[in-house]
Write a structure and sequence with these properties.
heterodimer, A: alpha/beta, TIM Barrel, six-stranded parallel β-sheet, three-stranded parallel β-sheet, 11 helices, B: alpha/beta, six-stranded mixed β-sheet
C-alpha cells in the first residue's frame, strides 16, 4: 500500500500529477511551511519537502542558494518532523521528504523512519542513496510503512532500472536528463526512454519525471507518457522573486499542464 | 576479508567506502572500474605508464637521508622519500598519469579535476597538455587566492580554472562542483579525482597508482640502508600520499605507520582539519568514512594553513586501517608544521610543501615512543615552491 502511488494512479484519469518541491526552512521554517501548504492548495498533488544539506551535489544553484540560506538561518534536522506534522495536517496531498543520506545516517535510519512516519509523512526521496547501499533503509521504511523513492537515469542499465523499480515504493524518480536540478528550456528526449525502461522493467511501478521541468507545456507532455511531473527549482525561483503570491501563481500555471 | 591487509580492495574497507552518489554516476563508475580492472592486467598499459614515469615523471624518486634534521630532533635516523622531485613537484602526478591514460582508453576527451593546494590541478593540467585532453579544474575561491601561482600555472598549461563560490569556497566545495559537472557531462567526461576518497573504484584505483611510492621506498631502504624502517610517516588530507607509501608496508608488522593530520589552530578549537582524530563516521563525496560534521550530519568547515590538507573528509581505507589499529593518526598544528618546514630548509636545504611539513613535525611527537637509533621514513610528498608567499608572510619576510 502506498498513498503516493494511489494518488498518482487516481490522477491519471484526469490528466496526471504535479509533484512540487520546496526546501524546509527557506527563508524561515514558518514561511516554508506556509509556502508548502499554499502549493498544495494551488495544484500540487504530491509534496516534496527538501531537507537542507551542506553538500547537495544533485542540486543546481537555485536550490543550493535556498538551502544554504536555510542552514545559515539555523535549520535543524529535528525540526523536520514538526514541520512535516503541520504540513501533513493541513493538506490532502501525500508529503514526502527529500534528503541526502548523511543526515539520515547520523540521525539513525530506523529512528528517522519512525519519526517521519509518526509525523504523517508518506515517505522519502534519497538522491544519493542507491538501492545497492539501501538494505537498512528498505527494512526501516517497510517497518514504518513509508514510501521510498530511488532514481532511474538515462545511463542506468536494464538491471539497474529493474533494481530501482523493485526497490522503490510510491514511484520511481525518472531523471529526465543528465544533469542537476534547475529549469531548462528543452527537456531531453531521454526522459521518454527512461520512462519506457521503467515501464518495461517494472510494469507495476509508478514513475514521475524530474530535473529541468519548468513549464505547463512540459508538465503536459510528461504526463502524456509518465505518471507525474516533478518541479523544484522553478517554484523556488518564483518564491525568491515574488514571495508566496508568485509561488502560488507559478503552481497554478504549471498545474494547467495536467488538463488533457 | 582478504588474508593480507595489502590485498584489500573496494568497494568496502570494513564498514567504510561504498558508493553514496546519485544513480546518474553509477554507469560511469562501472565503466571506469571495468576499464581499470582490464588495464591493470594489460601489459601494454603497465608498460605505457611505467615508460611515462621513467621518462616524464622522473621515477624512481630517490631517498635522501636527513642527518642534521634528525639530530635536531633526537637519536634517530630520518630518510625522505623524495616525491617532491617528481615532475610538477609532488606525488600527485603518479595518479594523474594513470587516470589520464584510462580516460583516453574510455574515449573521453575531457577531464575535470578538483584541487585544494593546486598540486592536483597542476598535475591534471599537465597530463591533459601531454595527452591532448581538454581540462577543467574546480578550485574553491579561497584557495585560488592563497595559491594564485598554481592558478597561473594551470592556465599556462591550457586548463580552464573555475573558482567555486558556493559553500565554504574550499576543496570540499570544489569537489561538489566537479561532481555536478560530472553528473551533467558524464558521457564525455572523466572525473580525475585527486585523492583516495570518493565512490568506488576511486579509493582503490588512486591507491594503486600511488602504491609505487611505497614499493620503491621499501626496496630502497632494504638496498641502501639494509633494513626496513621502524616508522613510516606521511601527512594526511584526503590521504593519497600516505596510503601510497603505507601500502607496501601494511603487512610488515614491525613497521609502524603514522599519518599526520592538520590540527590548524589546535584540535581543542573548531578550526582544524583533523578528520580521523576528531571526526566520526559519515558519508561525504560518495563514500562512508570519518568526517568532520555537526550532530545533524552537516559537514563542518575545516581549517588549515595548508590548502591541501584543508578537507573535512578522508579516504575510507584510512578509516578502516585506523579502526583495526594498523595505522595511527596524530594532529599537527599550523605552528608546529611551519616550524618543521623551516627546520628542514635550514638543516638540509630542502623546502617542503606545507602539507608535507606536517609529517616532519610529527616525528618529534613520536620521540617518547621511539627506541634510540630508530629509522624513520617520511614521504616528502611535495616541494614548497607553491607555498613561498604563505611562508614568507608567516615568517615576516614580506608583509
Amino acid at each position: 500500500m502506498s498513498r503516493t502511488s494511489d494518488v498518482l494512479k487516481a490522477n491519471k484519469a484526469t490528466g496526471g500529477s504535479l509533484i512540487g518541491y520546496f526546501p524546509l526552512g527557506f527563508p524561515s521554517m514558518r514561511e516554508s511551511i506556509d509556502a508548502a501548504v499554499a502549493m498544495c492548495e494551488s495544484g500540487v498533488d504530491v509534496l516534496e519537502l527538501g531537507i537542507p544539506y551542506s553538500d547537495p551535489v544533485m542540486d543546481g544553484l537555485v536550490i543550493q542558494q535556498a538551502t544554504e540560506l536555510s542552514l545559515a538561518n539555523g535549520f535543524k534536522l529535528k525540526d523536520t518532523f514538526e514541520a512535516v506534522r503541520e504540513v501533513a495536517s493541513r493538506v490532502q496531498a501525500p508529503v514526502l521528504v527529500m534528503t541526502y543520506w548523511n543526515p539520515v545516517m547520523q540521525f539513525g535510519q530506523e529512528r528517522f523512519a519512525k519519526e517521519l512516519s509518526e509525523a504523517g509523512a508518506a515517505g522519502a526521496i534519497t538522491p544519493d542513496l542507491i538501492p545497492d547501499e539501501a538494505a537498512g533503509w528498505i527494512k526501516a521504511t517497510d517497518e514504518h510503512n513509508l514510501d521510498r523513492v530511488f532514481l532511474a537515469t538515462p545511463t542506468s542499465s536494464a538491471t539497474r532500472t529493474e533494481a530501482a523499480c523493485s526497490s522503490s515504493k510510491g514511484f520511481v524518480y525518472a531523471v529526465s536528463t543528465m544533469g542537476i536540478t534547475g529549469a531548462r528550456e528543452d527537456l531531453d528526449q531521454k526522459a521518454k526512454q527512461v520512462v519506457a525502461a521503467v515501464r518495461s522493467q517494472g510494469p507495476d511501478s509508478m514513475t514521475a519525471v524530474g530535473i529541468g521541468v519548468s513549464t505547463a507545456k512540459q508538465v503536459r507532455e510528461i504526463n502524456s507518457y509518465a505518471d507525474g511531473a516533478i518541479v523544484g527549482s522553478a517554484f523556488v525561483k518564483a518564491y525568491q522573486h515574488g514571495g508566496i503570491e508568485e509561488l502560488k501563481a507559478k503552481v497554478a500555471e504549471l498545474a494547467k499542464g495536467k488538463s488533457k | 576479508m582478504a588474508e593480507k591487509l595489502a590485498d584489500q580492495v573496494g568497494p568496502y574497507f570494513g564498514e567504510f567506502g561504498g558508493r553514496f552518489v546519485p544513480e546518474s554516476l553509477i554507469a560511469a563508475l562501472d565503466e571506469l572500474d571495468a576499464t581499470y580492472q582490464h588495464a591493470r592486467k594489460d601489459p601494454a598499459f603497465i608498460e605505457q605508464l611505467a615508460h611515462l614515469h621513467k621518462t616524464y615523471t622522473g621515477r624512481p624518486s630517490i631517498i635522501t637521508e636527513a642527518p642534521k634534521f634528525a639530530a635536531s630532533i633526537g637519536d634517530i635516523r630520518v630518510f625522505l622519500k623524495r616525491e617532491d622531485l617528481n615532475h610538477t613537484g609532488s606525488h600527485k602526478i603518479n595518479n594523474v598519469l594513470g587516470q589520464a591514460l584510462l580516460a583516453k582508453r574510455m574515449g573521453k576527451k575531457r577531464i575535470i579535476a578538483e584541487t585544494g593546494a593546486g598540486q592536483h590541478g597542476v598535475a591534471s593540467a599537465t597530463a591533459a597538455a601531454l595527452l591532448g585532453l581538454e581540462c577543467v579544474v574546480y578550485m574553491g575561491e579561497v584557495d585560488t587566492i592563497r595559491q594564485a601561482l598554481n592558478v597561473a600555472r594551470m592556465r599556462l598549461l591550457g586548463a580552464e580554472v573555475v573558482a567555486v563560490t558556493t559553500g565554504s569556497r574550499t576543496l570540499k566545495d570544489a569537489i561538489n562542483e566537479a561532481l555536478r559537472d560530472w553528473v551533467a557531462n558524464v558521457e564525455t567526461t572523466h572525473y580525475l579525482l585527486g585523492t583516495v576518497a570518493g565512490p568506488h573504484p576511486f579509493p582503490t584505483m588512486v591507491r594503486d597508482f600511488h602504491s609505487v611510492i611505497g614499493i620503491e621506498s621499501r626496496q630502497q631502504m632494504l638496498d641502501q640502508v639494509g633494513s626496513l624502517p621502524d616508522v613510516v610517516a606521511a601527512c594526511v588530507g584526503g590521504g593519497s600520499n600516505a596510503i601510497g607509501i603505507f601500502h607496501a608496508f601494511l603487512d610488515d608488522e614491525n613497521v609502524r605507520l603514522v599519518g599526520m593530520e592538520a590540527a590548524g589552530d589546535g584540535v581543542e578549537t573548531l578550526r582544524h582539519a583533523a578528520t580521523l582524530s576528531m571526526g566520526r563516521p559519515g558519508v561525504l563525496h560518495g563514500a562512508k568514512s570519518y568526517l568532520l560534521q555537526d550532530e545533524d550530519g552537516q559537514t563542518s568547515e575545516s581549517h588549515s594553513i595548508s590548502a591541501g590538507l584543508d578537507y573535512p573528509g578522508v579516504g575510507p581505507e584510512h578509516a578502516w586501517l585506523k579502526d583495526i589499529g594498523r595505522t595511527e593518526y596524530i594532529p599537527i598544528t599550523d605552528t608546529e608544521a611551519m616550524t618543521a618546514l623551516r627546520l628542514l630548509a635550514q638543516t638540509e636545504g630542502i623546502i617542503p610543501a606545507i602539507e608535507t611539513a606536517h609529517a616532519l613535525a610529527g616525528i618529534e611527537k613520536l620521540m617518547p615512543s621511539l627506541r634510540p637509533g630508530s629509522k624513520v621514513l617520511i614521504n616528502l610528498s611535495g616541494r614548497g615552491d607553491k607555498d613561498m608567499e604563505t611562508a614568507a608572510k608567516y615568517f615576516g619576510f614580506i608583509s
